[in-house]
What we know:
mainly alpha, 96 residues
Amino acid sequence: MDYETFKGYVRKSGLELKEFAGLIGMNHKSVSNYSKLGEVPKHVAIIVFMMVELGRLDVDIMVLFAKLEKTEQQVRKQRKNASRMKPLCGQKIINV
């Protein structure tokens, strides 16, 4: 996707480039640097395209991102708790 089309999709999603970058976990400067290349990577294009299409279906994308963040927080909490566990009977704990 060329950069100008990408910017149009970001606007259609109701976001600014900086907000979009934050939602997908990227630095806004990295997203802006795609303008120098003239195109965005396919995975970034897919994300913004899907955001616009979901919006057309009246899906609140911010709710979806909130659910994703909640899931990520749960995973971090589980990892933190797993690292606190002590081995039983001299066994090693292997994180998978």
